């Protein structure tokens, strides 16, 4: 990765979503979330320092961690950058986190194929990943 530099760093709010095509989030909430990252790395092009990839770890600092915002700019994909991001995040976890801690991620398809190369396995059928979809609470569901 001669033309890229990976550093332990937290991206700015504007870089986090725009540069890598992540879904939008509120600016104030993003600032809080970024500051509370357990660990964060940025991948920048060496020539102009443009952010082209990133990955973060969030968690409680003891038993539970989640890999989030693992992304590579579409124009820079298929160059091994995603593998470099995963390798660095997992090296950090191996060195800093209790081996019995729960480490998870939500995989968009087909990125699950990348994560499986690093030992992540689907939780189904024993469990499934879920998220809270606002406006669909029990009280708003039809009978």
Which labels suit this protein?
5 strands; alpha+beta; 5-stranded mixed beta sheet; 4 helices; 143 residues
Could you explain how this protein is built, in words?
A 5-stranded mixed beta sheet has the order 1-2-3-4-5, covered by helices on one side. It is α+β, with helices and mostly antiparallel strands. It contains 4 helices and 5 strands, in the order E-H-H-E-E-E-H-E-H. The model has no long low-confidence stretch (mean pLDDT 89). It is globular and about 50 Å long. The protein starts with a strand and ends in a 27-residue tail after the last helix. Helices cover 25% and strands 24% of the residues.
By DSSP, the count of extended strands is: 5
Assign a percent range to the helix content: 25-40%
Which term fits the overall shape?
globular
Whole-number radius of gyration? 16 Å
Strand content: 15-25%
**What structural category characterises the helix and strand content?**
alpha+beta
Low-confidence segments, given as residue ranges, are none
Mean pLDDT reading: 89
Number of helices, where a helix is a run of at least 4 consecutive DSSP H or I residues = 4
Please render the helix and strand layout as text.
Blueprint: E1 4-8, H1 13-18, H2 27-35, E2 39-45, E3 51-59, E4 64-72, H3 81-96, E5 102-105, H4 112-116
Parallel strand pairs: 4-5
Antiparallel strand pairs: 1-2, 2-3, 3-4
In short:
The protein is α+β, with helices and mostly antiparallel strands. It has helices spanning 13-18, 27-35, 81-96, 112-116, and strands at residues 4-8, 39-45, 51-59, 64-72, 102-105. A hairpin with a 4-residue loop joins strand 3 and strand 4.
């Amino acid at each position: 990765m001669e033309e890229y530099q990976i550093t332990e760093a937290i991206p700015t709010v504007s870089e986090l979503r725009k540069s890598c095509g992540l879904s939008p989030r509120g600016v104030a909430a993003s600032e809080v979330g970024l500051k509370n990252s357990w660990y964060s790395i940025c991948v920048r092009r060496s020539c102009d320092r443009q952010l082209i990839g990133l990955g973060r770890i969030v968690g409680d600092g003891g038993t539970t961690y989640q890999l989030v915002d693992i992304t590579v700019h579409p124009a820079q994909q298929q160059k091994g950058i995603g593998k470099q991001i995963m390798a660095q995040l997992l090296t950090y976890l191996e060195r800093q986190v209790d081996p019995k801690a729960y480490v998870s991620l939500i995989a968009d398809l087909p990125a699950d194929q990348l994560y499986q190369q690093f030992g992540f396995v689907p939780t189904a059928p024993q469990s499934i990943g879920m998220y809270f979809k606002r406006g669909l609470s029990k009280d708003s569901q039809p009978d």
